[in-house]
Amino acid sequence: MPVAETTVVRVRVALGGTVQGVGFRPFVYRLARELELTGWVCNSSAGLVVEAEGAPARVDRFLERLEAEMPAAAVVLTRETAILAPAGFRNFEIRSSDEEASKIAGVLPDLATCPACLQELNDPSNRRYGYPFTNCTLCGPRYTIIDDIPYDRPRTTMRAFVMCPECQREYTDPADRRFHAQPNACPRCGPRLWVEEPGAGEPIEKAAHIIQTGGIVALKGIGGFQLLVDARQTDAVARLRGRKHREEKPLAVMMPTLEMVRAYCHVSGAEERLLTSRAAPIVLLRPNGGSGIAPNVAGSSPYLGVMLPYSPLHHLLMRECDFPIVATSGNLSDEPIATTNEEARARLGQIADLFVMHDRPIARPCDDSVARVVRGRESVMRRARGYAPLPVYVGRDLPAVLAVGGHLKNTVAIAAGRQVFLSQHVGDLDTPEARHAFERAIDDLCRLYCFRPEVVACDLHPDYASTRWAQSCGLSVVEIQHHQAHAAACAAENGIEGTYLGVSWDGTGYGIDGTVWGGEFFLADGAKFERIAHLRPFRLPGGEAAVREGWRSAASVQWAALGADAVGDRPERSVLLRMLERGINAPWTTSVGRLFDAVASMAGIAQESRFEGQAAMRLERQIGELATDESYSLPDGDWAPLIEAVHQDVTRGEPTARIAARFHNALANWIVSVAGRAGVPQVALSGGVFQNGYLVERATALLEARGFQVYTHQRVPPNDGGIALGQAVIAALRG
Questions:
Q1: Which residues, in sequence order, are CB contacts of 125 under 8 Å at separation 6+?
Q2: Residues 66, 69, 72, 77: is their CA dihedral positive or negative?
């Protein structure tokens, strides 16, 4: 992971696996001293944590040698690396383990199939040849099978499977790589696979046949069911969308090999490492223009979400399906992923043409993670399989805080010692099923870590399901403003100390003044936040309807900037104008997300959004490969000149690519302008708007060219999936 070209940088590396008691800390100490780096190393509940600071070239060399020269007995199962703000360490030391953190046993995430197990899977002479539940201490399910700690087989969902003599021998032999591998099993004694169809035959071959002929397969995976369909068949994808009620949101694709991924997408070195990592997430990649993938797979997105097979079952299926397949969550839209066979039959029966099931119970749902490479670094968009429940190390002692997150893309978190443990992605809390999953995630995390919260942190919005739960739980409650939580999350995971400029942009968040915020700048230091700038407010005619129908936001800003004649001739025009003129059912907002909707509507790109951020996604996609510094004017966040210019460009037929680029550039320039006035060198970018790759890259380049230190999310999502971290930190600092 190359680091930025600055005088001094600090890197934090968190390693999970067999990294304690093998001489790892002395090795790190000697290596850091040899390279003249400062910092520290210590054991943590999750494994081992290192912080090293020094010249960029020396830090790069440290990371390379840490990987290449680690102790022979060490087994690194997870590795998370983050570039942090410099701390000014004076020397390098071995710190004692965090006593509070050491009371919590670390739980590893589910890990992708290792090369050794994959070789056995494909070896006809091996007793595990073709066995879909092959695993060892280096790979396989962890988080989704553990019921309690410590992590022993009787406390996992494997307890019902009694090991055969050969598996027992492996399990008890210290020299064997399956020594104390809790999910250890083989065809004689382990879980079995079947299809629910009389006389169906071999499950994987049958599933492959159904997929190849345009059918939909429900497959029970590691953390829940997936729905699979041939990604090349437009009609099959459309059928899946219709049955799942997911009309336009992008779908992920699984491909059998890295070579096939390159045939469809541009893949950088960093993206390749992410695809083949032990987390094995869905990675957002730029399509290379090659044909073959049905156009209704990615939909509005400028990216294609791609993953490689990560379990033996997926490897076996993709060996039969030598083509891209859609692999999406096994649920109806807005519902949690199905985890039990009974649940799948009841909830997916009207979707799937074939069920592939097994009898290994899933202790908790865990969807596929989504990540991308931004600024040359890994950035997680949805934190679940492969990442959860790895902690975020915050570098300061925190009291026992339970943070319950927001309403959309919900995650929950617990703060213990110097670590914050985030749950897997729960999702939007709009349905009773989703709210039940939310409550289960809280109970699960607290029980698993023997955690007793002293205070609950929640969003300021009174109508969020998570807020209502917090207010009724009987514990002391701390309400945290939504956008402050975004900024604090980015600062916490990047180790920012002192004052920084927090840029917090999204679609919707409840403001301190009771209006809808979403285009905020804060001067922040710890739990102190001063709102120093924001987007000029405009009305949302129809309130919540304007979130889905971007033409309403467009009408609002056009009415204010250009007059009533610019609103257009929609059937709702007269009602809309009355709303705007009288302020009836038209709340004020400072949301940059809604400004995206307005511009997308004016440019004829999107009049409404079927899912959160769709219009913004389409607007970014329009830029394509266009490279320009041209920009609209957005003085002090006043969008009126911008709206006038967009109107003029649309009227004279300016290409949408140029309109989209000028708009994005205007936002980036505004960030630079506010940063220049704020007078602090550290800038943190957070909120759902900063899922926009073009905007992040553009703003970062402009800021760094002017000497600012820019921090973006790496291990925690920039969207609402990350605010539980910010809530926990702010609540803890408020004491």
A1: none
A2: positive
Report the SS3 class of residue 43: strand
Under 8 Å between Cβ of 525 and 710: no
Q: Do 490 and 684 touch, CB atoms closer than 8 A?
A: yes
Two tokens at 464?
């969020």
Residue for token pair 């400028």: 302
Distance between terminal CA atoms of the chain?
Answer: 36
**81 vs 52, 84, 92, 631, CA distance in Å?**
11, 10, 18, 35
Q: What is the CATH number of domain 99-190?
A: 3.90.870.30
36 phi-psi bin (left φ>0, alpha ψ -120 to 50, beta other): left
pTM exceeds cut of 0.85: yes
Tell me the helix, strand and coil percentages in the chain, rounded to 5. Answer: 35, 25, 40
Identify the CA nearest to 69 among candidates 32, 111, 116. 32
b/e map 153-171, b = 16+ CB within 10 Å: bebbbbeebebeeebeebb
CB 595 within 8 A of CB 583: no
Specify the DSSP element, H or E, that contains 437: helix 432-448
Count of other CB atoms within 10 angstroms of residue 76: 19
Cis previous bond, 462, omega within 30? no
What's the gap between Cα 43 and its chain centre? 26
CATH code for residues 9-97: 3.30.70.100
Nearest to 592 by CA among 499, 679, 685, 654: 685
CATH no., domain 193-358: 3.90.870.40
pLDDT value at residue 694: 96
CA atoms in the 13 A half-sphere facing the CB of 236: 23
pLDDT tens profile 80-118? 898 998 999 999 998 876 544 444 556 788 999 999 999
| Burial class of residue 82 (count of CB atoms within 10 Å of its CB; 0-12, 13-18, 19+) | buried
Q: For 5-16, b where at least 16 C-beta lie within 10 A, e where not — what string?
A: eeeebbbbbbbb
Contacts of 239 (CB under 8 A, 6+ apart): 214, 216, 229
Residue whose tokens read 């978190």 = 413
Exposure string for 230-242, b = 16+ CB within 10 A, e = fewer: bbbbeebbebbbe
Q: Which two tokens stand for residue 375?
A: 């600024």
State which CATH number among 1.20.120.530, 3.30.420.40, 3.30.420.150, 1.20.1440.20 fits the domain covering 534-711: 3.30.420.40
- Residues present in the chain in total: 735
Average pLDDT, the chain: 93
- What is the DSSP code string of 559-575? HHHH-GGGG---TTHHH
Domain definitions of the chain by residue range: 9-97, 99-190, 193-358, 386-494+716-734, 534-711
Q: Which residues pair with 456 in a beta bridge?
A: 402, 477
**How far apart (Å, rounded) are the C-alpha atoms in residues 469 and 543?**
24
Rounded to whole angstroms, the Cα distance separating 597 from 606 reads 8
Element (H, E) at 265: strand 265-266
At residue 1, the pLDDT reads 45
Strand, coil or helix: what is 23?
coil
Work out the widest C-alpha separation in the chain, in whole angstroms: 82
534-711 matches 9-97 in CATH topology: no
- Please report, rounded to a whole number, the percentage of residues in the chain having pLDDT higher than 70: 96
Which residues, 6 or more positions from 537, have their beta carbon under 8 angstroms from its beta carbon?
Answer: 515, 588, 589, 590
Residue 3 has pLDDT above 50, yes or no: no
pLDDT per residue as tens digits for the range 412-450: 999 988 889 999 999 999 999 999 999 999 999 998 888
- Cis previous bond, 150, omega within 30: yes
Find where tokens 């097979």 sit: 309
Task: Provide the CATH number for the domain formed by 386-494+716-734 in this structure.
Answer: 3.30.420.360
Name residue 59's amino acid.
Answer: V
Q: Take residue 160 and report the two structure tokens written for it.
A: 């019902």
